[in-house]
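User: quick one, fold this
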Amino acid sequence: MVTGYSNYNVEVKNVKFIADDGRICPRTAIVTLYNEKGEEVGSELYGAIDINLIYETIREGKELNLDNFYIAEFSVSSYRRVNGIEKKELVKINGFSAKNAFFEAKICTDFTYSSFADGDVSFDGTHFAKGKVLFHGSVFGKGNVNFSNTLFRDGNIEFTGSLFGEGDFLFKNAIVRDGIKDFQDIQFGNGEVSFANTEFNSGELLFINTRFNSGRFNFKVTRITGGKVDFHYSVFGDCEIMFERTEFGNSRVDFRTVDFGSGRINFNRSVFGNGEVNFEGASCKTGKIQFKKAEMGSGPKNFNLMEMADTDISFERTEFGDGDVSFYESRFRTLSLKSCHLDHYFDLRLSKAGLLDISDTIVRDIIDLEPYDFPVEIKTLDLSGMRLLGKLYIDWRHNKCSAGIESQEGTSLRQKADQFRILKENFSGTGKYEDEDEAYIMFKRYEAKSWLTEQQEKGGVAKVVSYVPHGFQWLVFDKIGLYATSPGRVLFSVIIFWMFFGTVYFLIELAGLGKTVSSVGNPDHLSSFMQSFYHSAITFFTIGYGDVYPMGLSRIISGFEGFMGVFMMSYFTVAFVRKVLR
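Assistant:
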């Protein structure tokens, strides 16, 4: 039957209608469909059944089969009034089926507080052409409930407080026009709940405080043009949750304090419009949540206070659009923003995470990781391949940056070095010079380790020779002065070298291989030990008074010490000036 019609006309004739299964109805309803221009686009024949006959069937407890029938002004509330039944007392309906039926009512088609017996209940292919559709407080027994391929032209439907037994609830390929779609406070049984490929158009789509048990929740390829999509306080069991390729339009999307249970939650390629996206306080016991290649608009994105300490959540290649994104004080096992464009402020001050992966990202604004009023516990931080055009607000000590990068398992030494370089440049830009020095030291250390590893892999002579420059760099650049970041350490090393050479001169004299000689006698009565240290001082600091000079092997050592003195004092000057200028 055509679903894209704008208007229709019903004409009931006293012509016998025979259904495909042999059921006979004394009258036939001819439904003619028209487009916006008033042109006929189709027509259908239905059996026109008297509403009192339907009520009598219910009263007698017989099976109610309305397949291919036209039903006007159906109301369980009216049935309840006529039969003196309390307002909220359940009305039992046995063996119900209304496939390919056509309902219309001036105000509403009313199934409120109906009790459907065990067995399948089907509205497959049915048109609710006029009026609201109400299933408020209804109870469905064991079996499948099928609203697939239905059309709700009024757009206002209500299932509030309904209870479903074991079986599938299928709302696939349905079309619901603009209005309020109310699925609040429903209790679903174990089985699939599917709204796949349904068009909800605009209005409010409400699943507040709804309970979804074990099975599968399928919202795949569902389309919403605008309004509000509200799942907050809903609870899911151990089930797969599918929102893949769902189009939320410019709706306000609300998943606050939703309990996602355990399992896999899929928002891959879903499209969010310019409304707010809110997952604040959502929780998940274990499992995975994926937003890969999702698209978001200009509204704020709130992922604060999420409790998912044993859950992996991935936004790989997601387009976050305009608007700030916040994960403030949330807990995850892993959070991945790999290969995303982070063009606006991102609050990544997580309460706890085993891994924060922001590798291969392009950052054009601010990423905030710096603890303020609570500790940010991120065990592993992956920045590999990041293009940092904006700023990282991060603290070397409080964010445990070194441990966060070193604990990475899937990155090479070269990649770790590059991440420390990114932090070094970032700290320089934000004026955190002490942190810059720490990051620079780690960058140079991992760069040296990477070079040595690469030479080792070549084998042969290169493998053996590589230890010489690496050892020199390790001793002189790293251990002596921390790559010119610590003038105090260089000064301490100067003292160590002076004492070392003084001791060497004294031992050479004891061995008879050389000595230091005073050219002016010994007016201060220095012992050979003290004279060795005095000669070491005037040689190391290139003073050169000439009152003490070396002989024998001490001449060679003195030349080498003079070079080391010039080198170390230059090293100290560079480190000291670097500190002062910053």
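User: anything notable?
Assistant: Residues 553-581 form the longest helix (29 residues).
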